[in-house]
Amino acid sequence: MTPPVVLPWEPQEGEDEEGRIYRAVFESVMNQRLQPGTKLPEHQLCELFGVNRSVVRKVLQRLAHDHIVQLRPNRGAIVAMPSIEETRQIFEARRGLEAVIVRLAATRVTKADVADLRRRLQAEHEAMHRADQPAWARLASSFHLKLGELSGNPILLRYLAEMISRCSLIVALYQPPGNASCEHDEHERIVDAIERGDGDTAVALMDQHLGELERHVAVRPEAPEPSLAALLGLG
Fold first, then answer.
1. How far apart are CA 175 and CA 132, in angstroms?
2. Nearest-CA neighbor of 208 among 190, 191, 223, 225?
3. Better-predicted residue by pLDDT, 227 or 171
4. Which of 88, 181, 187, 198 lies in disulfide reach of 193, CB 3.0 to 4.6 Å?
């Protein structure tokens, strides 16, 4: 049996204060309340959450490990600012992973698996019509993760979970308002191909699907920090 993979935004049973703070920061980034480059001073986080600095530092280390924040020596933590090149590389890696995954899923899928995928698609459809973007985004990510499980390869699944998390961050930070992170109809066509056992079509559809997702992302080049002279109107 493939071990379950938990994505960072999913609440975990028995969550401690570190987990609570982690998810608060993560969800604020995903909901675009915290913008790229926003400073996250340790002392303010301590005051807001009523914890000591050792707890906050552990949380920031976890967030940095998951590429949600960047830790700058002697300058503190900021919300991550993925570059254009990093974004390209992440989507390139994800397309390669999911091509292998859907091809494997097409050879292993059962009627019960297809029924489960169809239920997930229905939940996506309902969230879309409720205009519930956060729920829609979670369901879309869950759909891709389910395909990873159906590949039967836990190593691919773990890598996919990381790619989904990093892509979700990029989409949350840079996708213009009004764009869906994953189109419901595209998911439906991928399931149709997998159900037929048509791996080639499933791979082509997934590549097109992720390509569209990447094209909707508008990464803004990182702006240089203004100099003191510029701030004083002297440069």
1. 16
2. 190
3. 171
4. 198
Burial class of residue 28 in the structure, from the number of CB atoms within 10 Å of its CB (0-12 exposed, 13-18 middle, 19+ buried): middle
Q: For the chain, what percentages of helix, strand and coil (3-state, to nearest 5) are there?
A: 65, 5, 30
Neighbours of 217 (CB within 10 A): 20
Q: Collapsing DSSP states into helix, strand and coil, what is residue 151?
A: coil
pTM here is 0.75
Read off the pLDDT of residues 110-155 as tens digits, 9 standing for 90 and up: 999 999 999 999 998 888 777 666 677 778 888 999 999 999 999 9
Cα→Cα distances 80→37, 60, 68, 69, 89, Å: 6, 12, 5, 4, 16
148: Cα within 13 Å, side-chain hemisphere: 26
pLDDT digits (tens, 9 = 90+) for 56-73: 999 999 999 988 899 999
CA 90 to chain centre: 11
Residue-level length of the chain: 235
Contacts of 5 (CB under 8 A, 6+ apart): 145, 148, 149, 157, 158, 161
Q: How far out from the chain centre does Cα 10 lie? A: 12
pLDDT score of 228: 41
